[in-house]
Amino acid sequence: MKRKRLLNHKLIAGAVITAFVVLVSAAGFFYTPYDPNMMDAASKFAGISLKHPLGCDNFGRDILSRIISGSGTTLVIAFCTVLIGSVGGMLAGAVTGYFGGAADEIIMRFNDAVLAFPSILLALVFISVIGSGKYKVILALGIVFIPSFARLVRAEFIKCRSMDYVSSAKLMGASDLRIMFVHILPNTMKVMLSSVAIGFNNAVLAEAGMSFLGIGVVPPDSSLGRMLSEAQAFIFVKPSYAIFSGAMIVLMILGFSMLSEGLEAL
Amino acid sequence: MKYIIRKTASMAVTVLIVSFLVFLAFSVIPGDPAVAKLGTSATPEKLVKLREELGLNRPLPVRYFEWIKSFLFGDMGTSYSYGVSVRSMLAGKLPITFCLTGMSFVLIIVISIPLGISAAKYEDTLFSKITDVLNQAVMAVPAFFTGILITYAAGLVLHLFTPGGYVSYRESMGGFLYYMLFPALAIALPKTAMNVRLLKSSVLKEAKLDYVRTAYSRGNSTNDVLYKHVLKNALIPVITFLGMTLSDIVAGSLIIEQVFSIPGIGRMLITSIGNRDYPVVGAIITIVAFIVIFINYIVDILYQVIDPRTRRQG
Question: Among the four A54, A205, B14, B124, which has the fewest Cβ within 10 Å?
Answer without folding.
Answer: B124
